[in-house]
UniProtKB/TrEMBL annotation:
The keyword Transcription does not apply. Belongs to the binding-protein-dependent transport system permease family. This is Sugar ABC transporter permease. Pfam families: BPD_transp_1. Keywords: Cell membrane, Membrane, Transmembrane, Transmembrane helix, Transport. It comes from the Bacteria. Residues 67-292 form the ABC transmembrane type-1 domain. It comes from Pseudonocardia zijingensis. It is a multi-pass membrane protein. It is found in: Cell membrane.
């Protein structure tokens, strides 16, 4: 029965493994090699320069400024997005009626679920165009509403202000992604055992205590995975910013690493240096995933 077992398995794995090497591993290897050259992108000439691009990158203030913007996005957007998504999922899935804790959520949960998910359906490119009009200093809806309610002193060119440009983009990202994680957490909550919540109700636990001591510990894996996924997106964040602020914002106050990489490659023609930026960003992404996975080593909650 076992004769030729490994050859049989290898015959099935050979083609998928070959495709994986060609289309996944090979581009990574090529990117690392190109990052060690002075390739300009539009010629066959490539001079190997070793780690010179990485040495330049270490002292590149513009790169570190872009990295700081990514760090702010990485800290603020996932925390706020996941907190809002957890709150909305709890209220529409487990909150119960009249302040109780149970199944079904608050009154009108079905309608709220549709409303909360709708922003995620809108592509980021479309969202970027819409919010450009929303933040428009003259005819934008935001400044118009502020003037309408008597807060005209708060009106400002949101995307043209170095202080508010990046927070304005963060607000769009939070608006865009809350719906997806609302669905993730709602699905996870529906799989939790109902007898645990029934016991909490009998013990007199309210919504806050039940969420803190029962719901959140049992959702730890979902929250952790969601943070990694959203954090990786915040380390990129190219699409929305390239639509809303393609020049990096006022005084480059919103430029992220992916935009800087794009500019180095396709504006200045420094493909070798751009590849070094890409490799550095890839390594930082891997470090983020490892750190988040190792932050919480407590025993898993089984149910």
């Amino acid at each position: 029965m076992r004769y030729g077992k490994y050859r049989f398995i290898a015959s099935f794995l050979a083609v998928p493994l070959l495709l994986y090497i060609v289309f996944v591993v090979s581009p990574y290897v090529q990117a690392v090699y190109i990052s060690m050259t002075d390739w300009r992108g539009f010629s066959a000439e490539r001079n190997f320069i070793g780690l010179a691009n990485y040495a330049e990158l270490a002292g590149d203030t513009r790169f570190w400024s872009a990295m700081w913007h990514n760090a702010l996005l990485l800290i603020v957007v996932p925390v706020v997005t996941l907190a809002i998504a957890l709150f909305l999922a709890t209220m529409t899935t487990l909150a119960g009626r009249r302040g109780s804790v149970g199944r079904g959520g608050v009154a009108g949960s079905r309608f709220y679920q549709i409303v909360f998910v709708f922003p995620y359906v809108v592509p980021l490119v479309i969202a970027g165009v819409l919010y450009q009009f929303f933040y428009n200093p003259q005819a934008g809806l935001l400044n118009g509403l502020l003037r309408l309610v008597g807060f005209e002193w708060l009106a400002r060119p949101w995307l043209g202000d170095t202080t508010f440009a990046l927070p304005a983009v963060m607000a769009v990202l939070i608006w865009a992604f809350v719906g997806f994680y609302f669905v993730v957490f709602s699905s996870a909550m529906k799989s939790l055992p109902s007898d645990v919540f029934e016991a909490a109700v009998l013990d007199g636990a309210g919504r806050v205590r039940t969420f803190r001591h029962i719901t959140l510990p049992m959702l730890r894996d979902s929250v952790q995975t969601s943070y990694i996924y959203l954090g990786i997106m915040m380390l990129d964040c190219f699409t929305l910013l390239q639509v809303m602020l393609p020049d990096g914002g006022p005084d480059r106050s919103t430029e992220v690493v992916a935009q800087y990489l794009y500019r180095m490659a396709f504006t200045e023609g420094r493909f070798g240096y751009a590849s070094a930026i890409g490799v550095a960003l890839c390594l930082l992404t891997l470090v983020l995933a490892v750190v988040v996975l190792r932050m919480d080593r407590r025993a898993r909650v089984e149910f």
